[in-house]
Design goal:
about 130 residues
C-alpha cells in the first residue's frame, strides 16, 4: 500500500473545488475511492470541512512523526550487549540474558544487530582457536 503523495493531494484539492465526485477523483489519481474518502475525512479543515492540499500534507506529516516508533535495540541495550561481548559472552548467552533482564522474546539475528555488535561477533574477532583440536 503506497501512501498518497503531495501531487495526489493537490489533485484531490483541485478536483474537489471543481465539484468532481470522489469516485472520479480516485480514478484520476489511481487510488481506490475509499482511500480518497479517508484522506478527505482525516485531513480536511475541522472548522469549515474544506480540504486543502497543503494543510493535508502538514497533518499527514505531523501524524507520521508523532507516532511512537518501535525501538527494540535501544542505545542502552546496545551498550549492555557490547559490554557483554567484550566479556566473551556468546550470542546465545546474550539472548538469554536480554530475555531475563528486558523481557525480550527475540531470537539472535545478525540482520537486526547494529554494525558494532556484528563486528564484535564476527569469527575474525573470536578469541577461540580456529582449526583442528
Amino acid at each position: 500500500m503506497n501512501p498518497i503523495t503531495s501531487e495526489q493531494r493537490y489533485a484531490i484539492s483541485t478536483m474537489l473545488k471543481q465539484d468532481f465526485s470522489q469516485t472520479v477523483i480516485a480514478q484520476t489519481i489511481g487510488k481506490h475511492k475509499s482511500v480518497v474518502s479517508r484522506e478527505i475525512t482525516r485531513n480536511c479543515d475541522q472548522r469549515n470541512g474544506e480540504y486543502h492540499h497543503d494543510q493535508a500534507e502538514r497533518k499527514c506529516m505531523t501524524r507520521l512523526f508523532s507516532k511512537p516508533k518501535k525501538r527494540r535495540f535501544t542505545p542502552e541495550v546496545e551498550g549492555y550487549v557490547t559490554a557483554l561481548l567484550n566479556e566473551q559472552y556468546s550470542p546465545e548467552q546474550l539472548v538469554d540474558k536480554l530475555q531475563r533482564l528486558y523481557g525480550y522474546k527475540a531470537r539472535w539475528s545478525s540482520a537486526i544487530m547494529p554494525a558494532s555488535v556484528r563486528a564484535a561477533t564476527s569469527p575474525m574477532f573470536s578469541p577461540r582457536p580456529v582449526g583442528r583440536i
